Amino acid sequence: METSIIIRTKNEEKWIGEVLEKLFDQTYKDFEIIIVDSGSIDMTLEIVKKYPVRLFEIKPEDFSYPYALNFGCRQAKAEKYFLFLSAHSLPISNTWLRDGISGFSVGKNILGVYGNVRALPDATIWEKLYFNSFWDNIFNLFKRRTIFKKSKMGVLGFTNAIIRKDLWERRGLNEDYGGGGEDGEWCKYWIKKGYVAVRDRRFSVCHSHSLGLVGLIKQLKHWKSNTKPKPFKKLEYRK
After folding, report:
1. What is the pLDDT of residues 124-146, one digit of tens each?
2. pLDDT tens per residue across span 103-119
3. Is 238 contained in some domain?
4. In the 8-state DSSP scheme, what is residue 178?
5. How do residues 74-83 score in pLDDT, each as one tens digit?
6. CATH number of the domain enclosing 77
């Protein structure tokens, strides 16, 4: 198969069923789904087991953001691509996956493709104001893809991103970034090697955490702090 979709879960009962429904409704079918769970105690595992996915469970104490993804990649059967998707990121259409993979046709030096993020239906007004900017939406109507030759915060965020398997095999995700930022660090490494990242608005997802203003500010500060290695802490904000 061409693509392995790797999803990290822990207590994701609210959205994981709808996420999986949207994935299995895609027009592109050449994929497998790998769930890496790190100790769910809600209904997550019961929901996941209703679908034809490959479920792996790791110890909660072993979890970090990059470790869980590297673990999933090592189990993957895909020949070309790894797709990292948050367990509460809803694809915007049934052509979402095909649209994302088509981004690799832009050139031979594409390291990965990712999409915009919009707020979930139950998001707070603050999240909707931040993620659903009117002018961003208008601008994106006229520009489907953007190519990034420099790394910066948010480029190739693993909320929803596809990377090349061959590049991961040459250099996996840096597990020194256990508390987050492994996506930006990996992207920066390959950009320095002459590769570029592609953002495709048709590969966007709805994703948010129901944060109020104070919580959103703390989340943004957390993201900005992920430029340096740090260990995972249980109270880290979710991706």
Report:
1. 776 677 667 644 555 566 789 99
2. 999 989 999 999 998 87
3. no
4. T
5. 999 999 999 9
6. 3.90.550.10
What are the residues whose beta carbons fall under 8 Å from the beta carbon of 12, sequence distance 6 or more? 40, 42, 44, 87, 88
Cα distances (angstroms) measured from residue 144 to each of 22, 78, 103, 199: 22, 27, 10, 8
Whether residue 236 lies inside any domain: the answer is: no
DSSP states along 5-43: EEEEESS-TTTHHHHHHHHHT-S---EEEEEEES---SS
Is 164 part of a structural domain of the chain?
yes
Structure tokens at 222: 């957390």
39: tokens are: 């100790």
In this structure, how many other beta carbons lie within 10 angstroms of the beta carbon of residue 58?
17
233 domain residue, yes or no: no
- Segments forming the whole domain that contains residue 179: 3-227
What domain count does the chain have?
1
138 to each of 92, 144, 207, how far by Cα in Å?
17, 11, 19
Residue 202, phi then psi, degrees to nearest 5? -75, -10
| Rounded Cα–Cα distance for residues 162 and 157 (Å) | 10
C-alpha–C-alpha distance, residues 89 and 27, integer Å:
18
